[in-house]
Design brief:
Blueprint lengths: L1 E2 L3 H14 L5 H9 L3 E7 L5 E10 L11 E9 L8 H15 L5 E3 L6 H9 L30
Length: about 160
């Protein structure tokens, strides 16, 4: 496992990141890897072929069921399909555990989309337990004339 530290590494990271997050604009991916809040890592074969990536951070905000802050957080993990089920993902998680431990963390957390059961199975296999399921909502705010005024109500 190596840090993403030069242009070649960045290009390799970007290729895999686009597979992990296909709907994410390249400008946003650039922002992710350049953020001082995240650390990007690549995993390569002995002949230097890139086969996976992982992004880690320290989260100081709320992490469900965490007992201490900060929490080591796997922001993203991806292994090329032909290298899955060969221990690569488990090795990345072990690396993440050591990285977080070295920074004073006692827990490692991550999230996964509800419709990704393969990742749920992998995370359980490497020792994570599910702690919460969430559906997020958003609503655009549009300018309008309100005929009601907000008032404080003592209950």
């Amino acid at each position: 496992t190596q840090d993403v530290s030069n242009q070649e590494d960045f290009n390799d990271w970007l290729d895999l990141a686009m597979q992990l997050w296909p709907d994410c604009p390249i400008a946003d991916l650039n922002e992710i890897i350049q953020s001082p809040r995240q650390a990007g890592f690549l995993i390569r074969t002995e002949n230097k072929q890139v086969i996976g990536l992982m992004n880690l951070s320290l989260r100081y905000d709320y992490v469900p069921d965490a007992t201490q802050s900060p929490v080591g957080y796997v922001e993203g993990i991806y292994v090329k399909a032909e290298y899955r089920d060969r221990g690569v993902g488990a090795a990345l998680i072990q690396y993440a555990e050591q990285w977080a431990h070295d920074r004073g963390c006692i827990e490692l957390a991550l999230d996964a989309l509800l419709d990704n059961p393969a990742s749920h199975e992998f995370y359980a296999k490497v020792g994570f337990r599910e702690v919460e399921r969430v559906v997020f909502f958003i609503k655009p705010i549009v300018a309008c004339n309100l005929e009601y005024k907000c008032v404080n109500i003592d209950l």
